[in-house]
Design brief:
The chain contains twelve helices and two strands, in the order H-H-E-H-H-H-E-H-H-H-H-H-H-H. The chain is an all-alpha fold and 197 residues long. The longest helix is centred in the middle third of the chain and has 16 residues, at 101-116. It starts with a helix and ends with a helix.
Length: 197
């Protein structure tokens, strides 16, 4: 078990009295999984089934275990202020963190439904030869440009690489379910711009 998993487990035990009731867990996770993104600082309470307001009121974020796990989440998100729910759940699973089976099951279901719609990448897609971040970025760019072209254009009506990257990252878990792409935001924008010329 990783140290982050150990820290999460210790935090889960220390905060068990703050969790939503088991009978309410399903509704709690459904409500939060409907969001496209969560603020990064809310991701840890969500994984623990604790309302963020209660988390803040109880000042749990100052707990040493909370600080350790939250820093790992921030590192995973590379400084991004928001995280897609499925992305943080998958991160927790890759860290051998024991999350609620309800959360895990709902996230798996949502991932399967999204894939049936042709939007999410499967592990086989991710491992396919030549299917690197650049290809997925360009595929994601095509998807966002066709689905929401007005959000991808600058004030003069031209497609803008930075805006397209913003749209991609807003729903990054659809194309990058195991974490952020290896390219920086600027590199992604440059790649997209090179194809817009």
């Amino acid at each position: 078990m990783s140290s982050v998993a150990d820290a999460f487990q210790a935090l889960a035990q220390a905060t068990s009295h703050l969790r939503v009731d088991e009978l309410d867990e399903n509704q709690f996770f459904e409500r939060w999984l409907k969001h496209d993104t969560w603020p990064v600082e809310d991701s840890l309470p969500m994984l623990l089934a604790i309302e963020p307001e209660r988390w803040n009121r109880e000042n749990v974020s100052s707990n040493a275990f909370a600080i350790e796990v939250q820093s790992q989440i921030r590192e995973f998100m590379s400084g991004s202020a928001e995280v897609a729910p499925l992305q943080v759940v998958r991160w927790a699973q890759t860290q051998a963190i024991q999350i609620s089976p309800i959360l895990s099951g709902l996230a798996d279901f949502i991932g399967r439904v999204l894939h049936q719609g042709g939007l999410a990448a499967t592990s086989a897609d991710l491992e396919a030869p030549g299917n690197d971040d650049r290809e997925r970025i360009l595929g994601a760019a095509l998807a966002v440009v066709t689905k929401s072209p007005s959000n991808c254009k600058d004030d003069n009506g031209f497609f803008d690489g930075q805006r397209i990257v913003g749209e991609i990252l807003a729903k990054a878990v659809l194309w990058f379910p195991t974490g952020r792409p290896s390219l920086s935001d600027e590199e992604m924008a440059d790649l997209i711009e090179s194809w817009l010329r």
